[in-house]
Design brief:
Distance between the termini: 40 Å
Strand content: over 45%
Shape: globular
Oligomer: single chain
Structural class: mainly beta
Length: about 120
């Protein structure tokens, strides 16, 4: 069983920044893809950003240029640096990993990000 522990959510004013982090209980070498989804009230969960084992990244159009996803292989973590935050970024953010060999996907417990003045 893979465990993902998230940290870094909170309340921030529009235009501010937050950094989310997610620590995986397995070696990052066994992970093909890591990333973040989010779900706002009344909306479907959507992909925010992902990073592959090779370092390739992909972002939702709504966050490209403002958010940066990165992974630390030594610490088995994936991070999401969020800048120029907008009220529409308010959501619960979920870390996820896709394992390399069996393709299984695992989710973190979610962390609340609220952007409000």
């Amino acid at each position: 069983q893979v465990q993902l522990v998230e940290s870094g959510g909170g309340l921030v004013q529009p235009g501010g920044s937050l950094r989310l982090a997610c620590a995986a209980s397995i070696s990052i070498s066994s992970i093909r893809v890591m990333g973040w989804y989010r779900q706002a009230p009344g909306k479907q969960r959507e992909l925010v950003a992902m990073i592959s084992s090779g370092g390739s990244t992909n972002y939702a159009d709504s966050v490209r240029g403002r958010f940066t996803v990165s992974r630390d292989n030594g610490r088995n973590t994936v991070s999401l640096q969020m800048n120029s935050l907008k009220p529409e970024d308010t959501a619960v953010y979920y870390c996820y990993v896709e394992k390399r060999y069996d393709g299984r996907v695992y989710w973190g417990q979610g962390t609340q990000v609220t952007v409000s003045s």
